[in-house]
Amino acid sequence: MITFKKNKLEDKLVGFLNNLTLNRKLLLLYFFCVLFPLLLTDGVILTMIISNERAQFNEDMKNVAINVSADFISSVKTASDVSNNLYVDMSIYNFLDTKFDDNADYYAQYYDFINQKGLSALYLPNMSRFIFVSDNNTITSGGNVYTLDSVKDINWYREFISSDYKTQLIFYFMEEGEGGANQTKTKQLKLVRWLDYYKNSDIKKLLVINLDYPLLMSNFSTRKYGMLAYICDGDKIVLSTDGQSNIYSPYSSINDADRRKAGYISEVDYMGKTYTVMVFPDNGNVVAGALKNHALLVILVILLNILIPLLLVRLINKSFTNRLWQLDKVFESGNDNVGLVTVNNVEGTDEIAHLMNGYNDLVMRNRKLIKTIYEDKLVYQETEIEKQQAELLAMRMQINPHFLFNCLENVRMHSVIKGENETAAMIERLATLERDVVEWTEDVIPLYKEMGFIKNYLKLQQYRFGDRFSFSINVADEVNDASIPKLTLATFVENACVHGAEKKTKDVLIMINAQASGDKLILEVEDTGAGMDTASAERMQRKMRECTFADLKKNKHIGILNACLRTKLIAGDDVDFIFESEEKIGTYIKITMPLKHFDAQPADGGES
To answer: What is the enclosing helix (H) or strand (E) of 174?
Structure first.
């Protein structure tokens, strides 16, 4: 039952496909067997590419976070190193612990202290000012030294003492009036540190290094990280790589939405605080980034997997439909009462080409059958009429020369009596030739008889031309009994003697060959006589191939055309003549006709 259902389903599908055009069938084949599987495989490849791109993207963001963290630490390291040196400087502790008698005493020692340390001229990278703070009420606040009371209400000090760390980086926004009457609101960065290395005093002392925040911000924005990155102190964005921060506005805050947009988040601990580093990809669409980075591969995949197969399907469809349409047209021609016509210019060697060639063979067999049934009788009648015309023409050209045989015999006997044996032999050969011509009892004779006649004729020509004339006859054993029209080959040999040897004073050779090639008889006559020009030879070959009995009445080349016509009567259309000639070189004639064996076998082979 299962097999039956499958076969029934298959029959329905085949029936459905039979009603579709070839173009639609190929498109279905392309979609289900090419495009759909390729889309699946390409989807897997694209997913892998995007996954790798996302992993690389995450790795790039991680590297940006590492670089930003390292650059942040590096940018304040100089200030940290300077603070370490000042932290252990005993002279600073002594100055800040000193009880001064009055302001004059303080200023005198202050200028000596500042000049001695060179603090007024000390400007290192990223640092703009050094400040010392001491809980010493004999100090007058100003310059590089302040009392603890003068700074205890400032925001940076409150933030510093709110933690337990001895050294901190303080990012804060300086409000109006904190830095003096002429100071504007700006973002500030300070390195604040307790000076407690020496324990010989109860006075609290602080080292404050003001870092150049605008310069630090500029350095971050000029580095080519390739992505936006924030360094956050809690929710406060203290540094960014976009260069868009305004130092005259308070620090921006990060919110949960911004955290969700961040592609990568890490933390860095420095000077007692944990800073958050957030990296935001410049192109949040990883898929678009992957396609952009692998554009050449994507284009190549589309070309190889979609466009090229589609173009190939189109070409194959055209290869099918054009030739099938051509077949359909020739089939329709049979409805026009003109009979089936062949397909011209069959292209290709595939199955359709074999089908078209098979159709052409069918048409040719059909035509031959029609010719056999309807035309053979007409052809037979026409052949009989032409044969009668040929016989009448032959009768018109011949006379009954029996009286001449007696005369020739008397002359031959007289030559024998007188001892003129050569003349007697010539007369005997001439009588033999005349007898063969006169006693025309059959039109078709075996080849060996024709060769015997030709040999006698050429012997007579040797008597005439002497030593400058020679000939050779080569006949293959398998064609000795081949059937040919009587005196046809002899006519071509006679033409070689008359038009070749007679018109040339130098040595002349006539070569006659007969052999088989498959089911064909090949007859060749070649001479080294006078020859003719190429144009005349081409006209002669055309006459031999296209002559009719009407051409015999023009009294030009009657012998050759007669031989050609009689050969065609025997062989039909399956005969071919080749006539080639060159002046002063010679002439070549080739006759190709069906090989048919004569009933009687020859007594001996041809001579040469």
So the answer is: strand 167-174
Q: Are 186 and 212 spatial neighbours (Cβ–Cβ below 8 Å)?
A: no
Beta bridge partners of 232: 237, 276
- Distances from the Cα of 424 to the Cαs of 32, 236, 417, in angstroms? 96, 144, 10
Residue ranges of the alpha helices (H) in 172-307?
213-222, 256-261, 286-293, 295-302
CA distance 327 to 345: 12
Residue 35 tokens read as 């495009």
Residue partners of 102: CB distance under 8 A and separation at least 6: none
DSSP secondary structure string for all residues of 462-493: HHHHGGGEEEEEEE-GGGTTBEEETTHHHHHH
Laid out side by side, the sheet with 273-280 consists of: 236-240, 228-233, 273-280, 264-270
In angstroms, the CA 458 to CA 93 distance is 148
Q: Whats the size of the chain, residue-wise?
A: 608
Residue found by looking up tokens 């003129």 in the block: 420
Instruction: Give the pLDDT of residue 185.
Output: 78
pTM (2 decimals)?
A: 0.45
What the chain holds in terms of domains, given with CATH numbers, is 65-280 (no CATH), 442-594 (3.30.565.10)
**pLDDT 10s digits, 33-62:** 766 776 777 677 777 766 777 777 788 888
- The helix (run of H) or strand (run of E) holding residue 63 is helix 36-87
Q: Are 354 and 325 in contact (CB under 8 A)?
A: no
- The tokens for 321 are 């439909």
Q: Work out the number of other CB atoms within 10 angstroms of the CB of residue 271.
A: 18
Whole-number percent of the chain with pLDDT over 70 = 73
3-state secondary structure of 533: coil
Using a pLDDT cut of 90, give the percent of the chain over it.
15
At 159, list the tokens.
């933030």
For 449-508, what is each residue's pLDDT tens digit?
889 888 888 887 887 788 888 999 999 999 999 999 888 888 888 888 878 777 787 888
CA distances from 455 to 18, 78, 140, 180, 557 (A): 72, 127, 154, 145, 23
Each residue's pLDDT tens digit, 508-560: 899 999 999 999 999 999 999 888 898 988 998 998 888 877 776 665 667 78
* pLDDT confidence band for 400 (50 / 70 / 90): very low
Residue predicted with more confidence, 180 or 502: 502
Radius of gyration for the chain, computed over Cα atoms and rounded to the nearest angstrom: 61
Confidence check: pLDDT of 603 > 50: no
Degrees to nearest 5, angle at CA 24 with 22 and 27: 110
Three-state DSSP at 441 gives coil
433 Ramachandran zone, left/alpha/beta (phi>0; psi -120 to 50)? alpha
> Helix 558-571 and helix 376-397: axis angle, to 10°?
150
List Cα–Cα distances, 410 to 49, 155, 406, 460, 581, in angstroms: 115, 164, 6, 19, 43
Whole-number mean pLDDT of the chain? Answer: 78
Question: Phi and psi at residue 550, in whole multiples of 5°?
Answer: -65, -25
